[in-house]
Amino acid sequence: MKKSFLYVAVLIFILLAACGAPASTNTGGGAAAVPAEYAGQTNPLGAEAAAEGAKVFRVNCVACHGEQGHGDGPAGAALSPAPKNLAELQTTVADDYLYWRIRTGSPGTAMAPWQGILTDEQIWQVVAFIRTLK
Ligand code: HEC
Fold first, then answer.
1. Are 96 and 39 in contact, with CB atoms under 8 Å apart?
2. How would you classify residue 82: left for phi > 0, otherwise alpha for psi between -120 and 50, otherwise beta?
3. In the structure, which protein residues have their CB atom closer than 6 angstroms to any atom of ligand 1?
4. What would the pLDDT profile of 95-108 be if each residue is shown by its tens digit?
5. How many Å apart are CA 43 and CA 60, to the nearest integer?
């Protein structure tokens, strides 16, 4: 009896530890904090992935965010909040923030979660492309 109690206590401890403390990494410019499971991630594909990312962006994102990512796509015009200017945003946030937002979306806005639609590889490709936007 005592042993199984200890076992359960240890399990609970491990679970709590796994859930982690709130993320502390910065996102800059007043942006929301990146959750712990995403915090600190950097693009495993590197900058060369931008060319593939441009294709992913054209098919999935341009309608709202516009060709240059300035938030001026035709389907974005009527949205509130409006699609973000990604050229501007990318100068203020790290890769972890972009990856997290694209993967899980922005609740309460037209920015949907792309996980399950795009592969993680495609999301990193599009992150690399966003880094080229001016
Ligand atoms: C249906 C329109 C629509 C599409 C399609 C769309 N977005 Fe968005 N996106 C939005 C809107 C609206 C926001 C602003 C959300 C906000 O203000 O929090 C946004 C915000 C973002 C942000 C910033 C999130 C934040 O909170 O800072 C990123 C990054 C982003 N989009 C990337 C993408 C990428 C990459 C794609 C394509 C894979 C994409 N979006 C497709 C509408 C769209």
1. yes
2. beta
3. 31, 60-61, 63-65, 75-76, 79, 81, 83-84, 86, 89, 98, 101-102, 106, 109-111, 114, 126
4. 999 999 999 999 99
5. 20
Nearest to 104 by CA among 90, 89, 123: 123
Give the residue, out of 27, 57, 84, 88, with the most ligand 1 atoms within 8 A of its beta carbon, to mutate for a pocket test: 84
- What's the average model confidence in pLDDT over 78-96? 98
Residue 48 has pLDDT above 50, yes or no: yes
CATH topology of domain 34-130: Cytochrome Bc1 Complex; Chain D, domain 2 (1.10.760)
* pTM of the predicted structure, to 2 decimals: 0.83
Tell me, what's the pLDDT at 31?
Answer: 78
